[in-house]
Amino acid sequence: MTRDKASKSGDQVSELTASRLSVYLRCLNALDAAGVKSVSSKTLAEQFHLNAAQIRKDLAYFGEFGVRGVGYYVRELKRHLRVILGLDRTVRVAVVGAGNLGLALADYPGFRQEGFEIVAMFDSERGKVGRKSRTGVRIIEMGEFRKVVKRERIDIAVLAVPASAAQEVVNVAVAAGIRALLNFSPGALKVPPGVKLKNVDLTVSLESLSFFLARGEADEDEG
Amino acid sequence: MTRDKASKSGDQVSELTASRLSVYLRCLNALDAAGVKSVSSKTLAEQFHLNAAQIRKDLAYFGEFGVRGVGYYVRELKRHLRVILGLDRTVRVAVVGAGNLGLALADYPGFRQEGFEIVAMFDSERGKVGRKSRTGVRIIEMGEFRKVVKRERIDIAVLAVPASAAQEVVNVAVAAGIRALLNFSPGALKVPPGVKLKNVDLTVSLESLSFFLARGEADEDEG
User: Does B216 map to a domain?
Assistant: First the structure.
């Protein structure tokens, strides 16, 4: 909260760009699966309800991926996007909290598909330790967190714990050397400089539906 | 995919605006809980890493909420935002799919807090029917869906089913009169005109962390 505005706004641009690149990758995966070899920014925008100018601008920032008269080669652009998003190697993830949400996240098929590996789950409840999720992710005692993070070279910790326990888990994760956290619990959490915390608030999605119902508008949306 | 561009872009603006209003409401809740009575767009932006000009523009679209020399009265603006977002009445929600994700969503504390009521869960698995989630949401047989939706005046259906079952559930929900759906399963789903479908892709959040790790950048983020 004390950072200067220039770095703050630079940050927000990167953040939004990363989300859009991730959406483009998802669209390209769908096109590739359908056997499409190349696509223009215009067609990509039309098919997936995106903005063609924004696509061109976002991609141009990272290199010259477009080919005049062709657009983008689907597989080539996929490969480039995966490198930009850091998905050209397996990203190793630990889920903290083995309740329903934690178990659901550990087994979420989309993660594995994109090259994320859910290496372990952690919980402080004795009765859960030693069990496995449906897809075989083992639940480890929270006391082992630091050791396992080092040994398994965990990149990202996903927090699916009650709000009251969240800050303590963040502190433990940061002390263990974790530099990126995805948090599903409500409430503001503090991380030191150099650590990235991303909050997922599922209420925002539901409110956006409520907004449309209240306004009597409705339409398909891929967001 | 055949809609004209004007309506499509108008749609996207509303969609993004709704998400931002929802974030503003979350920030105002935090300020209200901390006993703050009024706040300027500048302070709001600084405290929550938002854009002050965007806040003023978004709010001005719906009315004149700002007071010269004061900014916004926190509680008053909260009340206005809740009306705009359709949260001035209880929004009734059904969760389809009583797996780990469905159970987690049925018990998600953020929903209840903002005035959403999770009225029922549905599942086609006999062994689950009749059970309840931890907070007491009853699991009903999928065959009863239409009847229960009418009787309980369900506004929104949340889909937490495997991808292979998702389109069939959408069809059943639409036939039962549901006009707003929140989908957690991967893959593209079709809804008829007049029905709003919102997809939540949890992979996007994880990829944005991977993006920052790959670039060696890191910073706190409230998005």
Answer: no
Q: What is the pLDDT of residues B101-157, one digit of tens each?
A: 999 999 988 888 888 999 999 999 999 999 999 999 999 999 999 999 999 999 999
Test A14 with B188 for CB contact under 8 angstroms. no
Q: Domain tally for chain B?
A: 2
Residue A220 lies in a domain: no
Residue A101 touches partner B, C-beta closer than 8 Å: yes
Q: What percent of chain A has pLDDT over 90?
A: 64
Expressed as residue numbers, the domain containing B128 is: 91-203
Q: Report the CATH number that the domain containing residue A179 is assigned in CATH.
A: 3.40.50.720
**A209/B182 Cβ within 8 A:** yes
- Indicate whether A70 and A107 sit together in one domain: no
Q: pLDDT digits over A114-163, tens only?
A: 889 999 999 999 999 999 999 999 999 999 999 999 999 999 999 999 88
Beta strand A72-73 with A38-39: parallel, antiparallel or unpaired? antiparallel
Mutate to test the interface with B, among A203, A213, A217 (most CBs of B within 10 A): A203
Per-residue pLDDT band for B210 (boundaries 50, 70, 90) equals very high
CB contact under 8 A, B110 and A220: no
pLDDT in tens, B43-52: 999 887 788 9
Do B153 and B183 have their domain in common?
Answer: yes
- Contact B220/A19, CB-based, under 8 Å? no
Backbone dihedral angles phi then psi of residue A159, each to the nearest 5 degrees: -100, 115
B11 contacts A192 by C-beta, under 8 angstroms: no
CA distance B205 to chain A (A): 7
Which one, of B155, B205, B203, B164, lies nearest residue B182 by Cα?
Answer: B155
B215 inside domain: no
